Amino acid sequence: MRKRKVLIIDNAFAPSKKNKILNGVQKFSKAQRDVLSDDYEVHYVTMKGSDKQFPNQHILSTIQDVNANSKEKIEISKTIKKEITSILNEVEPFYVLDNSCKHFTTLYEQYNVGIVFEHYHSPSMPLNQRVKDKFEKRGIYWCGVSNWQNHQFRNFFNGVTSVHIADENEVVPPKNYGVFIGRWDRGKTPHIIMNIFARKIKDTHLHIFTTINNSYFSKHDQDIIDKLSECKNITFHFDAPRKKILKYLQEATFVLGGGKESTGIVSMEGASYGVPYIVRGSGSVAEQEHMSPFSMEFLDIRNKKIPQQLINAIEKFKKYTLEDRKRIANYAFKEYNRYMFKQRQLDLLERALKNKIEKVNYVERNLYEI
After folding, report:
1. How many CB atoms lie within 10 A of CB 103?
2. What is d(CA 160, CA 166) in angstroms, rounded to the nearest whole number?
């Protein structure tokens, strides 16, 4: 008896590289591919420029370009939809897990049981019943990645799942620096906390690991980076290999988050090495849902004293012992290890199937014999 088939669609805005994770979506979709391969025949769709890494990987001939003009974007979308349609017809997957970060609504009719993951921290379009109907009428399970994010989307999602997975890593004593890890995204305004750090934290270094590829990037962004690069307590690392990033992460005193994250995958990656997390926000942030209070400091901008809050947080984490860091790592691994991640994904598949049966006149397809 053959296994049921799962088709996972990766981020449409970035190629998938062998030794790099260009965004949190890719870390999540690769982890999905890994755990679901235990029980399913998994097919994995990636964009132009991707490295061939997995069995049943389908590399498309194009990629979404955030800097293209409107006409070009439309043509790119048409090509992507056409090629995914061809893959759907060839593979005939029972489940489709759509992490494309692009609402290809005309494809949804072709998803047998479809889950569309929302990875943006806030909506880019006005939310109304018409938007929700695009998912509801087709029996698509619209899935958020945190309750905080769901609130930003007016609780329109069918449900929420955790995207976090933590390895059991070696925990080491820290060196006197912090790290920021993430693509350059002006919408998340990472430069705000970086500028505060540059001005106020003179006795500690900050290593910024980022990429400007596949991002909206203007002369203003370049000016911000150029100015920050002049600071003696800041070093930029562009498009660094993942091995280098993880080495710096493992030995960091803290991870500095930019804020406005839908879930904050980097926070958990740091926690898996015992590295605590610092992030700013208003009222609450998504990271508070999966990070223990001991492993993070939240800088509430309503307080108006962000510089002093940042100073206090860094001084607090400099006092953490090796045992304190092991405590952080142990919690992360206990709650977010591979087994727990897999169970959450299997539960999500069941929820999506139930949703499909409830929402449309649906007879479960038996694809075992195909």
Report:
1. 17
2. 19
